[in-house]
Recover the amino acids of this structure.
């Protein structure tokens, strides 16, 4: 092997590598063009063509596909359309699995079971994938029980004596069902009992690399064609047809002006179309039952279930949080010195953003309310909150409830939820604000508008609160324990005051002997499912059971309803006082502390509320710690106070360095490199705001730390992991200063000072003109950043060239390679056993 490769070998290796790179580049460019260009662009153009409403758009669709106007906007919109169709497809598959494994509603399976029972003799030989027990004729009544009919949403018919005409009609229906079952029952069973092994084999053959074309083959072009076809089909079925059904209905009923005034004409019209489609499916399902078309009846029923579940999901996830968000905003108008006219103007100017923000606020409210209910379940006796659904219950399946429960029960539950959530908002937001306005007139409104010329000032405030303040406050494990302790203390107090301790918390004596009684209750309440019904019977048992799950008995005192009313009033009074305390104490504390720093200037309430929350949390934490130390004696308390004071001093020093100095330098460097050159012209002087730079620097530092922890192993990642592993209790001040703070601060100071020394010291000494000096001072920071980036790219290319050089040399001159196991010798040498001679 020569010490240096010939030039022709290096050139040939470079040409081969460049050819391979070009081939891969062409292939991956084709893949990216197909999936990120053709698919979304086709979806967007077909979507626009269908919703234009003219025949000429259909004729010019091929030319519109090749048009180059608004390519980027159409691609982005097409990506959204493709995402919606993909989500619709996944939802349909998932809903099918829910129906297959959980069972269809009883009103859909009544005739199917009837057909199975009649066709029993024809199906005595069980086929592949069918259990013999399912094919045996089982005696079942023609009419379902009364309670099952009521559960399905159909009123039960009274018991009347049989009529001969009705008996003949029933015989004809049985014969028709038997003939239909003999023809197509096996096909329906084959459709429902699909073979999972074949699906697994197909999934093993088709990988993501092969489907997307990342394996180097061109098979993905067929997948692109199928994706475009499915997108067109889903747009036509799930968007075009419902929209035009709703549009014709709205125009026919004369509601077109009201729909246009809502600024969401397309969405509302589509929802109206889905509602009318559901009603049409119900009517067609009834007609199919009358004319005894069993397969059509089942198909229409499944389509109705799909539309019903879709509408219920929209109501539960979209409409209900939106109502909660708007109600929260309306009840808190006086807190921010706003009016309904302001909200109407904001909605008119940006309807989409306004609705999204209100929906987001409503979702947060619903989430925290559900979290508080889960906390209550940990404290209260099982059975107290029987009227609220338990989200932690393993048997709770909201999709199965949407499939099986009738519409009127969902409507009743929705109205009840709106009343409960709205009443709580009135009690904990509107009424406290009115009381504060009467008692403390100068306390409200909150100052949430910050008038400043500083760039991205309000953005930095919201990001600082959401990314730093709230996570640091909510991640403390003691907050949940404190809240749980307060709820338990309130429950004990209310229980003893109203003689409801047994009702709220249960009796310890009864809890010890409760196991056998609970087992007997479960045996009595839960009926055993019929063999062969499986998960469907279990879900029906859950939906039709009489009492709550996990119920524990309690002692019922005299005048129990009156005591419950007093308990509710006491709870409302407690919630009102807690809301008053949360709305006033943190903000008042933060304003008082900030007044020492800023004087009488108005500060954004995010700062004051965050400062007040931290001070309140530290105060409560200190009080709880002192109460825990008091039984240990004075000497132990003094020792603990000394240890904590030392730890607090170390933490303050580390906080000043890591959360004060480093974010300030990082934010100032970002301002000089990115913000100032882009926003300030050369003939103007940039103004720097250290407070805003520090706020943005905190966010940048958090992002850099997260990226560092996710990246490869190097010295900064090792140091951050070590500091995080030590924690606050085992904080090592010397290690943090020497290994983390000093190197990072040195690098940031060099990045700030070296360009300034060059621009303000060396360039004027050379004798450059004033205009050139100004240009150098304003552009030296981005110029040096570009130089550093180019040097990094050059260093990377040199390393790649060295690897290519070694690869060319090994391919040309390396004949063979042999892998030899290496074992470190410890103690005495490990000798390999002698090889035995070959047997002759």
């Amino acid at each position: 092997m020569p010490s240096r490769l010939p030039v022709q070998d290096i050139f040939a290796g470079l040409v081969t590598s460049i050819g391979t790179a070009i081939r891969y580049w062409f292939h991956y460019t084709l893949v990216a063009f197909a999936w990120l260009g053709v698919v979304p662009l086709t979806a967007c153009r077909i979507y626009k063509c269908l919703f234009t409403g003219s025949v000429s758009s259909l004729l010019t669709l091929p030319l519109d596909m090749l048009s180059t106007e608004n390519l980027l906007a159409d691609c982005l919109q097409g990506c959204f359309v493709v995402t919606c169709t993909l989500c619709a497809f996944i939802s349909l598959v998932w809903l099918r699995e829910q129906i297959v494994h959980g069972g269809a509603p009883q009103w859909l399976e009544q005739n199917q079971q009837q057909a199975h029972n009649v066709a029993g003799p024809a199906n005595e030989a069980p086929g592949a994938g069918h259990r013999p027990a399912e094919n045996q004729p089982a005696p079942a009544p023609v009419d379902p029980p009364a309670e099952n009919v009521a559960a399905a949403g159909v009123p039960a018919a009274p018991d009347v004596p049989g009529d001969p005409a009705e008996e003949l009609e029933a015989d004809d229906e049985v014969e028709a069902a038997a003939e239909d079952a003999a023809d197509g029952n096996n096909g329906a069973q084959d459709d429902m009992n699909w073979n999972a092994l074949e699906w697994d084999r197909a999934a093993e053959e088709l990988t993501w690399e092969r489907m997307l074309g990342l394996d180097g083959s061109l098979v993905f072009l067929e997948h692109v064609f199928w994706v475009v076809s499915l997108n067109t089909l889903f747009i036509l079925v799930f968007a075009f047809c419902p929209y035009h059904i709703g549009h014709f209905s709205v125009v026919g009923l004369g509601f077109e002006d009201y729909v246009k005034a809502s600024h969401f004409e397309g969405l509302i019209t589509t929802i109206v179309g889905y509602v009318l489609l559901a009603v049409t499916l119900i009517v067609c399902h009834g007609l199919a039952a009358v004319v005894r078309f069993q397969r059509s009846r089942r198909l229409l029923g499944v389509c109705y279930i799909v539309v019903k579940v879709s509408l219920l999901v929209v109501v539960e996830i979209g409409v209900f949080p939106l109502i909660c968000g708007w109600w929260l905003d309306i009840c808190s108008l006086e807190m921010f010195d706003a009016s309904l006219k302001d909200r109407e103007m904001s909605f008119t100017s940006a309807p989409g953003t306004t609705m999204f923000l209100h929906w987001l606020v409503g979702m947060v409210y619903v989430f925290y309310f559900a979290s508080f209910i889960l906390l209550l379940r940990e404290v209260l006796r099982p059975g107290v909150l029987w009227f609220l659904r338990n989200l932690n219950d393993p048997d709770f399946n909201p999709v199965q409830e949407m499939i099986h429960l009738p519409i009127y029960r969902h409507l009743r539950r929705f109205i009840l939820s709106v009343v409960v959530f709205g009443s709580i908002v009135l009690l904990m937001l509107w009424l406290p604000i009115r009381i504060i306005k009467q008692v403390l007139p100068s306390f409200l409104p909150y100052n949430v508008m910050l008038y400043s010329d500083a760039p991205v000032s309000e953005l930095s405030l919201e990001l600082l609160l959401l990314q730093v303040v709230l996570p640091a406050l909510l991640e403390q494990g003691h907050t949940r324990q404190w809240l749980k302790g307060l709820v338990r203390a309130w429950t004990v107090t209310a229980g003893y005051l109203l003689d409801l301790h047994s009702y709220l918390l249960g009796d310890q004596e009864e809890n010890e002997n409760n196991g056998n009684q609970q087992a007997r209750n479960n045996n009595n309440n839960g009926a055993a499912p019929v063999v062969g019904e499986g998960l469907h019977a279990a879900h029906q048992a859950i939906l039709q059971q009489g009492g709550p799950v996990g119920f524990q008995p309690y002692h019922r005192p005299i005048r129990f309803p009156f005591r419950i009313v007093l308990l509710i009033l006491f709870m409302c009074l407690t919630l009102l006082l807690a809301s008053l305390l949360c709305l006033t104490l943190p903000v008042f504390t933060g304003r008082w502390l900030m007044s020492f720093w800023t004087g009488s200037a108005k500060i954004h309430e995010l700062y004051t509320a965050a400062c007040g929350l931290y001070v309140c949390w530290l105060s409560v934490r200190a009080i709880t710690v002192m109460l825990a130390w008091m039984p240990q004696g004075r000497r132990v308390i003094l020792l603990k106070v000394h240890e904590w004071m030392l730890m607090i001093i170390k933490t303050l020093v580390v906080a000043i360095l890591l959360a004060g100095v480093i974010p300030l330098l990082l934010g100032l460097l970002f301002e000089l490199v990115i913000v100032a050159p882009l926003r300030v012209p050369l003939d103007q002087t940039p103004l720097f705001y250290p407070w805003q730079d520090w706020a943005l620097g905190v966010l940048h530092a958090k992002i850099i730390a997260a990226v560092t922890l996710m990246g490869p192993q190097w010295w900064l990642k090792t140091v951050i992991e070590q500091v995080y592993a030590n924690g606050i209790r085992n904080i090592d001040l010397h290690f943090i200063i020497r290994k983390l703070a000093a190197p990072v601060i040195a690098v940031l100071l060099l990045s700030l000072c070296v360009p300034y020394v060059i621009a303000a010291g060396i360039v004027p000494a050379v004798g450059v003109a004033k205009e050139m000096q100004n240009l150098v001072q304003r552009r030296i920071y981005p110029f040096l950043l570009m130089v550093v980036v180019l040097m990094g790219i050059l260093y990377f290319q040199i390393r790649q060239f060295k690897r290519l050089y070694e690869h060319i040399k090994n391919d040309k001159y390396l004949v063979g390679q042999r892998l030899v196991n290496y074992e470190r010798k410890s103690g005495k040498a490990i000798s390999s056993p002698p090889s035995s001679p070959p047997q002759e």
Residues 7-111+215-240 form one domain. The first helix runs from residue 7 to 52.
